[in-house]
Amino acid sequence: MTILKNDRYLKALLREPVDMTPVWMMRQAGRYLPEYKATRAEAGDFMSLCRNADLACEVTLQPLRRYDLDAAILFSDILTIPDAMGLGLSFGPGEGPKFTHSVETKSAVENLPIPDPEQELQYVMNAVRTIRRELKGEVPLIGFSGSPWTLSTYMVEGGSSKAFTKIKKMMYREPQLLHQLLDKVADSVILYLNAQIKAGAQAVMIFDTWGGALAHREYLDFSLQYMHKIVDGLIRENDGRKVPVTLFTKGGGLWLEAMANTGCDAVGLDWTVNLAQAKQLIGHKVALQGNMDPSVLYASPEYIQQEVKSILADFGHGTGHVFNLGHGIHQDVPVENPRVFVDAIHNFSKPYHK
Ligand code: 1CP
């Protein structure tokens, strides 16, 4: 077992005692950091940055040099899987992701290959191996994937969407076709995450960013069912240590019990959820990650500290909480503010762990 100097993130996910509440930030590597923008410019474009293991490692480590974070997250994107399936991913300047080919017909679904993670996605595994080496056991490395539903929204719509018109037409007109697609994507995600774990990821997270666009029954059927399948298919122990799995559905506050019942180790919460209520509901089964509104990082240092104190008080005593934002950090937050946030969590949480 590789020794970790700081393992409080892994311990909190497994609800083992810690000295203070661990913290990382969703999208902690990104455009709010001037050094990220410089490295991205050096790479040329976003996908070139992802494909270059040394530069992907560099941007993964950048936020850790500035802030006292308890985990690193692989620098990559959820859309690497559809890209590896041959859909042709591109990111125009200042635009969202776009695919050359969308998946709208039965033949398109049937012809989709399941990518071999050590072939078409080997650049991701190389980034994982490089980052693990360069982290030198300081903090654990988180691997990740999108959920089958969230990935499929991009694949069917051909890019970002607000109304999800095409995929919802497919869902209500040809549900079996959508199930076929989701199942294929779920199989791809299982292979991809297990390869990340074998390459060195010490925990994994599944981002279901668009699950909140679904109606209740459809969430269970078209999103959660496939995340459950992934949880069942994952390697849960590696290098002598448990590999915790976190599920995050943005807008999933009404489905916390169902999420906790998948057998995952932790549930990520957006900022609409009250942490005390969530703890009461599912805190005996899983750890909780979250959940400050990312926009609070626009506020004054005093306000940020107050908000951190309130969220810590909501969770109360004991382990099982990983502090985070309720969604990704915004591009235009002042770079000093994440330090106020991270330090406040560490300082103010100590009494809750005595
Ligand atoms: O211009 C740039 O530099 C690209 C911006 C960017 C970044 C920094 C994109 C394009 N992806 C990423 C990295 C990324 N994406 C990470 C690793 C960085 C880190 O966390 O430190 C992760 C975990 C993701 C995950 C991701 N990509 C999600 C799920 C998490 C979430 O925020 O909800 C989603 C939905 C995507 C798709 C995507 N990739 C990029 C953009 C701008 C988007 C969103 C598009 C949309 O709104 O539909």
TrEMBL record:
- Where does it reside? Cytoplasm
Q: Which Pfam families match?
A: URO-D
InterPro entries recorded for this chain?
Answer: UROD/MetE-like_sf, Uroporphyrinogen_deCO2ase_HemE, Uroporphyrinogen_deCOase
Question: What domain of life does the native source organism fall in?
Answer: Bacteria
Catalysed reactions, semicolon-separated: uroporphyrinogen III + 4 H(+) = coproporphyrinogen III + 4 CO2
Site positions per UniProt: Transition state stabilizer? 77
What does the record give as EC number? 4.1.1.37
Domain (Uroporphyrinogen decarboxylase (URO-D)) ranges: 22-31, 142-158
Q: Name one GO molecular function term.
A: uroporphyrinogen decarboxylase activity
A biological process term (GO) from this entry: protoporphyrinogen IX biosynthetic process from glutamate
Annotated Gene Ontology cellular component terms: cytosol
The cross-references to SUPFAM superfamilies, in alphabetical order and at most eight, read: UROD/MetE-like
Q: Where does substrate bind?
A: 27-31, 77, 154, 209, 327
Pathway(s) served: Porphyrin-containing compound metabolism; protoporphyrin-IX biosynthesis; coproporphyrinogen-III from 5-aminolevulinate: step 4/4
Protein's job: Catalyzes the decarboxylation of four acetate groups of uroporphyrinogen-III to yield coproporphyrinogen-III.
Per the record, the similarity remark reads: Belongs to the uroporphyrinogen decarboxylase family.
Subunit arrangement? Homodimer.
Q: What is this protein called?
A: Uroporphyrinogen decarboxylase
Whose protein is this, by species?
Pasteurella bettyae CCUG 2042
Annotated gene: hemE
